[in-house]
Amino acid sequence: MALIEYNKPLKSKFYLLKISGKYEAKMGQFFMIKKDSQFMFLNRPMSIYDLENDGIIFLYKKIGKGTTVLADCKKGDEISIHGPYGNGFPMEVKGDFALVGGGTGIAPLFYASKQLKKYCKNNTIHVFLGLQEKNEFEASFNNYADLLQVNYGGFITDYIPYEKYNTIFSCGPELMMKKIEKQARKLNIDHYVSLEKRMACGVGACLVCTCQTKNGNKRVCKDGPVFRGKDIF
Amino acid sequence: MSGLLDINFLEINFKNPIIMASGTFGFGREYAEIYDIEKLGGIVSKGLTLNPRRGNQGIRVWETSSGMMNSVGLENPGIQAFIENELPFMQSLNLAHIINISGTNLEDYVKACHKISRKKVDMIELNISCPNVQENNIPFGIKETTTREVVKEVRKVVKVPLMVKLSPDADDIIRIARICEEEGADAISLINTFKAFAININEKKKIFENTFAGLSGPCIKPIALRMVHEVAKQVKIPIMGIGGIVNYQDVLEFLMAGAQAVQIGTANFINPKVGEIIIKDLENYLISNDISNISEIIGIVD
């Protein structure tokens, strides 16, 4: 059990949730989170939005039953959290980066940009976000990104100068990741996608989050959530 | 070694009556990264079939009030790949290992059981109750005739202890349990998940591509407990109780109702270390209630 530091409502039903404590994790990994409530039986997998010295931050959208329970949480409430789980984005990557996020798929990219800035100092990091409307959290990407482009309501994939990049990390709607993969394949770009699936155990045992890849069935929670785009699309 | 929780089930020594249920614990590897799983009494493998299965399409999990539905559809590597890649790991663990075998026809059941029986596994759990297999909408364990047929034929080829896992959807679970006993089953485990249904009201469509799915979790516990109690009175072979157990109090209920051991399933998803916690709590309960061995409470409630 851990304590909630804050749970801030933002525009478009987004929330920023900070849970107190010391955490360590790789970019692109996730935690399993649950509030004790009769309306929330299973844990919810949530990508790391940011890690600070005294806590961990998640960006989520109030969509269904579980996130509605989370949205009602207040500072000081107890919440259960375990992890980190999953493989995360690769650290051994080359060249200039584009990070592309759509909707809640933006969540893992903030911590990714922060980590990349820290560990890949010589590479440029460009961030592309697709949102419905302007939101409070976007500006913070400027702390780490060499360029930030946000598109409202349209297709962010139309604004990416693909030929500039050696590596792309993407997370968001399937159609978005698929379009990026098409370009990545044409231009020989290393493209990594972070997938989202309903989960139960989160650790690779129950097989409810199986996805089909070119190499057969894989577990999103354990073998992923990050896969090579070419293995998925 | 305190000896407080030791049990003997079919001449197999279990450190405690806490066994991880099929399909919720893989083959043990993932949870072994999280805690010392050798503290457990045993683990039951993911359900295995003769040939590999890719499992069901579409949504595989759905949350319900105090429970969940799953439609995994027995995704598994098949018995041969299991023997080569996973069984050595399970057998290297210092705990009892039980191999869960499933099938869609009699021949596959018999072949798979024959193969695994020769590998000196501690026990086979015959799954005649999975609701998630499309080719065979009615599991073998629903009807008396099919139950008798499969247990009889499997028994002929199985040289290790054989436990049959029953479905709560059985026409008459007491009658089915008796048939298993008559046909040579050494033990019975009950219950598997309930066949259940869910609808997406916005899309006016069913949630699961396979239509129905298996319901598990605390919402089924009182029914599971009733079934264990009823069956325990009617058969002489030992019983493993399963169904919605999430804490040591639930375990005590099942043992008092007549189960010699229990399996924990869905609770692993809520807290991956639940096994470790339950074992510690059970020990504390026995000490504070001055009970020298857990077997003293088995079946004490009429």
Short description:
Chain A is an alpha/beta fold and about 230 residues long.
Description:
The complex is a heterodimer of chains A (233) and B (302). Chain A has 233 residues and is an alpha/beta fold. Helix content of chain A is 16%, strand content 35%. Chain A has 4 helices and 15 strands. In chain A, strand 1 and strand 2 (14-20) form a beta hairpin. The longest helix of chain A is centred in the last third of the chain and has 14 residues, at 174-187. Chain A is globular, with a radius of gyration of 17 Å. Chain B has one domain: Aldolase class I (TIM Barrel), CATH 3.20.20.70. Chain B has 10 helices and 16 strands. The mean pLDDT of chain B is 96.
Counted by DSSP, the helix tally of chain B is 10
Q: Count up the domains of chain B.
A: 1
What fold name goes in the CATH topology slot of the largest domain in chain A?
A: Rossmann fold
Largest sheet of chain B: 8 strands, parallel, barrel
| β-strand amount of chain B | 15-25%
SSE sequence of chain B, one letter per element: EEEHEEEHHEHEHEHEEEEEHEHEHH
Q: Assembly type of the shown chains?
A: heterodimer
How many beta-strand segments of chain B?
Answer: 16
